[in-house]
Amino acid sequence: FSDLVPAMNSLTLYLKSDKHLKQWLQVLPSLWDEIKTSTFKGQHHLIKTTYKGEDINYVARYHNLSADEVINIHSKTKYHVLFLGFQPGFAYLHGLNEQLHTPRRDEPRIKVPKGSVAIGAAQTGIYPADTPGGWHIIGHTDTVLFDSTSEQPCLIQPGDTLEFVPLDNKGANHD
Questions:
Q1: Structure pTM?
Q2: Which fold has domain 44-166?
Q3: Cβ neighbours of 141 (radius 10 Å)
Q4: 29: number of CA atoms within 13 Å, CB side?
């Protein structure tokens, strides 16, 4: 095969040709069953976050919580990186507390700033670059997630874990 692309609920193999397709179809299920998950050890990242996002009060009101409760719930979780997608360095994170599951915005923003920490449905993530997006912004980080000039361009990899560390949020607009 020429490439392997993991996603949240699937794994895509790109074959150079269909010459050996039947062999791959026969061997893949057994290879999948034999994978030892304990052999991989990802890195743990602490993401310093200022919880003054444009939508934090919306998320709080949606769940009948205060902004401080949203911060506390969001930052007390160890998230697991499922896969990278949408844009280089965008990690889809698993583990968002159900209390914060929030439907995506009805109208996506044309520009979500680089470093925005956001919630979209049952997931949370960090925008690694300025881009359009439909998730609710609850905070910001200065952590660089993608650097095309680096030997490893993406800071966070599938299998890693991370936690959001709240920075001093005094003066945040908590309606």
A1: 0.80
A2: Cyclophilin (2.40.100)
A3: 19
A4: 3
